[in-house]
Structures are given as C-alpha cells and as structure tokens.
Amino acid sequence: MTHYRSIISKLTFVAVLCFSVLFSNNNLFAQDGKALFSQNCASCHAIDKQLTGPALRGVEDRWSSKENLHAWIKNSQAFLKTGDPYANNLFNQFNKIAMNSFPGLSDQDIDAILGYIKSAPVPGPQKEGTPSANPNDAMAEEGDNTLLFGILTLILAIVSFVLLQVNANLKKLASDKEGLPALEPVPVWRSKTYIMFGTLVLFMVGGYFTVKGAIGLGRQQNYEPEQPIFYSHKVHAGVNQINCLYCHGGAQDSKHANIPSVNVCMNCHMAINEYAGDPLYTAEGKEINGTEEIKKLYSYAGYEPGKPWDASKAKPVEWVKIHSLPDHVYFNHSQHVSVGKVQCQTCHGEITKMDEVKQFAELSMGWCINCHRSTKVQFADNGFYSIYEKYHDAIKNGTMDSVTVENIGGTECQKCHY
C-alpha cells in the first residue's frame, strides 16, 4: 500500500508540473505568431493600416480558401499564374509590385501568423484631447501578455507545491491510522528534492535572462533620441514629397547614406523662414513651434534673414545617430538601394509618417538573414549578376522563376563580416 502511495505521489507531482509547463508554453505559442509576423511581415504590412501592402486584419475572409492564401504567401509570383482573380486584382492594386516569397515558412508558421493577426486587439477610438498629428500613437506596438502568463505560471507552481505538502500530510495520517510506522516529513529547507528543484528553477530563469540580455546586447530597436533641431520627416518626405535621395544622396551611390550638410537645408530655408503646416508633436505629445526650429537652423548656419548668407560661418548640426551597426558588420547602402531596389521603408519603417525618427527594425543578424532568404533580386537585365550563368539558364528553362539574395551568396558569412 505504501509503495502505491509513493507512486501516486510521484505521478501527482509530475502531472502538476507538466500542466504548469504546458500552461506556461501557451505564451510561447502565442508569441510565435507575433515573432514570425515581426520578422517576415512587419516591414511591408500592418494589421489595421495599409503600408507597402494591404492591412492584414480579416485577410483570411478575403481569400477563397486558406490553401490559396498559403500558396500566395509562399510564392506570390507562381500563384499569379493560376489566374486567381483576387490575387491578380491585389497585384494590380499595388502597382504590380511583387510580394516577397517565403518558401521557408511552413503551413504551421503561416497559421501561427494568421492566428496572431486574428488575436491582435482592434485599435480603440482616440481619446479626446490626444493630439491626432502624432504618428507614434498609430505605430505603438500591441500589448504583451508575457507578464500575465508568468504570474499564472508562478501561481500554478505554488499550487503544485501546496498539493505536494497536502499529499505528504495525508500519507502520514493514513499511515498513522493503519498503525504503520511513518517517517517524519523532512522540512522543505532540508529536502534534497526541493533544494534541487529550486536550484534548477533559478538556473533556468537566470540562464534565460542572461541569454536574452546577451542576444539583445547592442540592439536599440525603437530608439528615438531627441535631436538638436526638431526635423520632421513627415513634413519633408511625406507632406512635401521631398525625395529621400535629395538629402541622403549617398544611399544610392556609396556605402553610407550620409547626413545632409547645413547648406542642403539652406537651399530651401533661405526662402522658407516660417512653418505654417499642421501642428507638430514630440513622442511625449508636446507641441513644437516649427518656426522656432527653423530659427535654430539659422543659428547653426550663421544666417540672418534678409542679409546675404556667408556659408563659411556655418557649423554642422550635431545630429544624434540612431542606426548603428557593429564595426565587424559590412553594410552597403548603394548595393541595396541601386542594385537590390530595396525601398527605404523596408528597413526604416514608415519614415514619411514620422515626426521624430526612431529605429524601426531590430537590425539583428537574424533579421537580415530572413530578409536575404526571402527577397528576390532584380536578376534579369542586370549586368551585376551576369556571372551567375546557372541561374540564368534555370530561369530560361523554367526550373526557377526567381532568384533570392540567398541564392547568390547572401547568407555566406564573409559577405557581411570581414
């Protein structure tokens, strides 16, 4: 009888522990879809807002079947050849810009992404008195339930511990009633089992946070520093449609995008000396006087309105750098912009809707690798890729319909590290 009770006690402990672990893993499953969405979809899609591609809420309802949607996500160009009317209308609606292919995503991965899209909270109405011109509100990330699930897991662990104590006491009472000798229960702080279990928990928790901190070392996603002059990309690149390359010409021709010099700013602001557009707001909701910010530019330029400007008196604006890569990482803007035809928004987000710029992408190695695996290169009629004869032949023979960055060595270590 005592032997059976010991077995039942152990089974109870294992069952409760497994239940606790499985329950805590619900959070992991819930986060998988969000992580996959961030890595593969967020550069072109939002859930409730049209970006480079359409808003994704209700995307399953817009397709005739989930199988077609899966096929479209994995290879949109191949699926277009089936003549599906919705797919072709979508392709034409977005100026015939091909959607990236994601052959590496399994059906389970895609279902996880679709599940995350379904479960994402619908944005509520804007609170009265909140500045509507602040785009950072619309770009805020959805809430995370990690803390909630962590608390529930802790509660379940405490319940399992209490149940073990109750089981031990019941076992002692039953033994006493039957007249069987019973050993006094070992105190928790002296029990090797509990000490080992507590040590393992501390080791796992400490290891998790150590690894997470090490992985995130040097990353600064959503970094949004205050600049010496409030420069609104929304006003310049969005409202006034100034091409990014007017200020960042190096992005097309060199490794670095470059920060424009003061004289580039003064090309326009010699004539524009006051701001009369929509209200400007900081990330904290503080309203900005645009005309005063132009005066700050004049101070750096050494310019007095109404008088000839002596450019030799100008001093550079001390802009705070936002996007930084480790010294051992090679990144060439012109290779991506001119050769790869990558849009600025892919890495920098909706820059045309930002008053204060922040780092949109995490710029991690995994983020770059995922992009290289799925992004097609402009292979045809591109002399830069003329050496890849086998891929040209494969396209002519119909065995390949496109070439990704990975195919031409975009995931090889020496391509980015030197």
Automatic annotation (TrEMBL):
Q: Which Gene Ontology terms cover its molecular function?
A: electron transfer activity; heme binding; metal ion binding
> What are the TM regions of this chain, as residue ranges?
147-170, 191-211
> Keyword annotations for this protein?
Electron transport, Heme, Iron, Membrane, Metal-binding, Signal, Transmembrane, Transmembrane helix, Transport
Q: Where is the Cytochrome c domain?
A: 28-121
Q: Which residues form the signal peptide?
A: 1-30
PROSITE patterns recorded = CYTC
Q: Does the keyword Transferase apply?
A: no
Q: What is this protein called?
A: C-type cytochrome
